[in-house]
Amino acid sequence: MSARARTLMQLSVTGALLTLAVAAPPASAGQGHPVPLRVATYNIHAGAGSDGVFDLDRQAAALRALDADVIGLQEVDVHWGARSRGLDVAGELARRLGMRVSFAPIYSLDPVTAGDPRREYGVAVLSRFPVRSATNHEITRLSTQDQNPVPAPAPGFGEVRLKVRGVPVQVFVTHLDYRADPAVRVAQVADTRRIMARERAALPGARQVLLGDFNAEPSAPELKPLWGELSDAAAGTGGTYPAASPVKRIDYVAVGKGVRVRDASVPEESAASDHRPVVADVSLTGKAVRTWTGRHFGRRPV
Fold this sequence. Notes:
Shape: globular
Structural class: alpha+beta
Number of domains: 1
Low-confidence stretches: 3-25, 288-302
Oligomer: single chain
CATH architecture: 4-Layer Sandwich
Distance between the termini: 43 Å
Number of strands: 14
């Protein structure tokens, strides 16, 4: 074989290998490879620690230590008032952590001074992945801003859609009613199940994760319907409230089908908030997924 022929053959083989390398997609659950994901939830107490001192540097450090890909936050102020220095707490934490943010207000009130931003309070999701879409769903609430509240639909049940190495993921973040009477939580759990089922049907094959402060312990009767469809990732771990010396676990990472829990813990951080966070390492698994790009869906074989 001539030198020229050998060179042409080498170029042909090299080109074929490069083509295969470019064409090969990253590993995904749809190809039988579990996709790792670390998720967490944290009630941040409007930026104040267990000592009552507002300190976003301390909270950012606590969140950074979780090393989570996705974090659900509760009790989040956005230009709410003096207790959080009028800051956009969700945006500030996202900026300090280098993460994307989606904020879902429970309350959105007119500013005290005309021209100032609206005063808002609610829940948020921080994500290392781009947020493909975000929705602020309504669930039953008993407002703390009305003198004579009655249970009524109100916003503050946030959902973001992500794609994690090709796998569509629906992340929900919530904060259930705090009162001793569980009646409102009963309604909220029913709303949660209905909304998650509807969103699951709208995006077949998506994995679902629910993050939040449920204000009830795992054995609470009002939470029982959730455990028929979701798994409590941190079952058997320690308490989360109050942070300094927890006596109960009321904060949750809950996962749906196609999400396998590999490990979960309640970090011993007790100064940055009046709650402790919950963090879980999960794998996105399953026999098949639907890829999602904007409004378009397509079947990806196993």
